[in-house]
């Protein structure tokens, strides 16, 4: 598989999750409309904050987005590195898939593995999986789904 453009990567990601019953949701504004705690949208989950906190229900249980984000301060601040490296920017698009009480680790891992190895065509020999050291459940799912060894 050849090199993909940004647009092709975005489409591949969103189409993969759409065919796996995820609602494609448009990017929310860079300035959050109903969240006075944030100056800018800094992650893909911002527009779903009220869903995760139980304040809002959506008519679907799965979503996928390509969220436009700005990070210009706070914990994940890259601002001091902008202009000094070719990789640090304040604006980016965050691709995300979300489950609102519908699935958890096993299916999330299955989706991730299938997307990366099949739809993006990255050989499993080129991949390394890392898991939080106390998460034996996720470790087991990764081994089962990917066929990778310890």
UniProtKB/TrEMBL annotation:
Biological processes, Gene Ontology terms: alanyl-tRNA aminoacylation; negative regulation of DNA-templated transcription
GO cellular component terms listed in the entry, alphabetical order: cytosol
Keyword Ligase recorded: yes
Signal sequence, start to end: none
Pfam family, one: tRNA-synt_2c
Alanyl-transfer RNA synthetases family profile domain location: 4-150
Keywords of the record: Aminoacyl-tRNA synthetase, ATP-binding, Ligase, Nucleotide-binding, Protein biosynthesis, RNA-binding, tRNA-binding
Enzyme Commission numbers on file: 6.1.1.7
GO molecular function: alanine-tRNA ligase activity; aminoacyl-tRNA deacylase activity; ATP binding; tRNA binding
PANTHER family associated with the record: ALANINE--TRNA LIGASE, CYTOPLASMIC (PTHR11777:SF9), ALANYL-TRNA SYNTHETASE (PTHR11777)
Family: Belongs to the class-II aminoacyl-tRNA synthetase family.
The protein's name in its UniProt record: Alanine--tRNA ligase
Species lineage: Bacteria, Pseudomonadati, Pseudomonadota, Alphaproteobacteria, Candidatus Pelagibacterales
């Amino acid at each position: 598989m050849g090199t993909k453009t940004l647009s092709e990567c975005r489409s591949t990601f969103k189409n993969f999750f759409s065919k796996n019953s995820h609602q494609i949701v448009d990017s929310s504004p860079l300035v959050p409309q109903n969240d006075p705690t944030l100056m800018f949208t800094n992650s893909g989950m911002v527009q779903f904050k009220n869903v995760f906190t139980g304040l809002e229900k959506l008519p679907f249980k799965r979503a996928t987005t390509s969220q436009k984000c700005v990070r210009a301060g706070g914990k994940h601040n890259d601002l001091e590195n902008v202009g000094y490296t070719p990789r640090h920017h304040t604006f980016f698009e965050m691709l995300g898939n979300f489950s609102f009480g519908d699935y958890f680790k096993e299916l999330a891992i299955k989706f991730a593995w299938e997307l990366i190895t099949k739809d993006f065509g990255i050989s499993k020999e080129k991949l390394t999986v890392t898991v939080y050291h106390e998460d034996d459940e996720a470790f087991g799912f990764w081994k089962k789904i990917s066929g990778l060894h310890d």
